[in-house]
Write a structure and sequence with these properties.
Layout: H1 2-19, H2 32-37, H3 46-54, H4 58-83, H5 89-95, H6 98-118
Helix pairs in contact: 1-3, 3-4, 4-5
Length: about 120
């Protein structure tokens, strides 16, 4: 029952981000961390990056937030591991590994630091 609702919300999000450019449309939320500090959080630019991906401008998407673009294969991996947990239990187990979680958290932290030092 939940799956059709999730798919409908995902499809609606794809349509909204595909049609409207967050860089030009005023109804998209702004990053509160950036507004308060002037520094970019790890997710800053992700709305614009998603729009650029949906409109087939991958280089522009990388310019807005390279981590979001690089995360797409990882998200696909997690989705596959979740959907195939009974058929491929080792893949599911690996996807729920504590070490993997810490590595991902470290990459996010490093991205956060580097983008504010070097202006990524």
């Amino acid at each position: 029952m939940l799956f059709p609702i999730v798919m409908a919300v995902l499809l609606l999000g794809i349509v909204i981000y595909g049609v409207f450019d967050p860089a030009e449309s005023g109804f998209f939320p702004r990053c509160p961390f950036y507004l308060l500090t002037g520094l970019k959080c790890p997710g800053c630019g992700s709305q614009r990056a998603v729009h650029q991906l949906l409109t087939f401008h991958p280089l522009e998407a990388l310019r807005y937030n390279a981590l979001v673009v690089a995360s797409i294969p990882l998200l696909a991996f997690f989705l596959l591991a979740e959907l195939m947990q009974k058929k491929w239990p080792k893949l599911y187990s690996f996807s729920h590994n504590t070490v993997l979680a810490w590595v991902i958290l470290a990459i996010i932290g490093l991205w956060w630091l580097l983008r504010n030092i070097f202006g990524f």
